[in-house]
Amino acid sequence: MVLNQWRQPQTLRRLVWVLVSLPLAWLMAKALAIELGANPVETLEHETGSWALILLLASLAVTPLRQWTGWGFVAPLRRTLGLFGFAYAALHVLIYAVLDRSLLWSELLADLVKRPYVMLGMAAFTLLLVLACTSPRRVVKRLGAARWKVLHRAVYLAVPLAVLHFTWLKMDKNLLARPLSYAAVLGVLLGLRLWWLKRPARGAAGLQSSPAGE
């Protein structure tokens, strides 16, 4: 009875909302307590960016989890986790643009030219923005399911760009443990997708995502 209740889409979504809000609540508490370290803006940038990646990778893991376990009830979580990943990415960009660069467009443009990892990050964010804007069901209906599915395959470009952005950033500081772990998880998830797609009949059908992650 309890297990069946947790399998309800609304119950699962509420649980995810609570869990993915905890990192932001923790960062806000640390900021209010002035415990973000010597460079609080950098800490906020890195933590929001890291959580964006974690949630985006989690969203990509939903389909393999559903395929291997048969848990069809987890399918809606792909959309939920993806949107929360975008929300953390948006916070990451806002912190960079407003707190780090004070909305000085000259500095922002200079960063795009001088720092390739910034350009990679902005490219990833632009793709995520398009995906987030086209995720509401009314937009799916206007686009049509087939075109929506083609468009949302851009997530398989956006997430690798985001991982490359993070890896390049940390490369200068020789802090590659975390970005390489993200890259490894991404490699496994993309490898699983390719493996399923190559399986006759079951592969192509099994990994088809319905509109809005349902």
UniProtKB/TrEMBL annotation:
Binds 1 heme b (iron(II)-protoporphyrin IX) group per subunit. It comes from the Bacteria. The chain crosses the membrane at residues 49-68, 80-99, 119-138, 150-168, 180-197. Its cofactor is heme b; FMN. InterPro entries: Fe3_Rdtase_TM_dom, MsrQ-like. It is found in: Cell membrane; Membrane. Keywords: Cell membrane, Electron transport, Flavoprotein, FMN, Heme, Iron, Membrane, Metal-binding, Transmembrane, Transmembrane helix, Transport. Heterodimer of a catalytic subunit (MsrP) and a heme-binding subunit (MsrQ). Belongs to the MsrQ family. Part of the MsrPQ system that repairs oxidized periplasmic proteins containing methionine sulfoxide residues (Met-O), using respiratory chain electrons. Thus protects these proteins from oxidative-stress damage caused by reactive species of oxygen and chlorine generated by the host defense mechanisms. MsrPQ is essential for the maintenance of envelope integrity under bleach stress, rescuing a wide series of structurally unrelated periplasmic proteins from methionine oxidation. This is Protein-methionine-sulfoxide reductase heme-binding subunit MsrQ. The gene is msrQ.
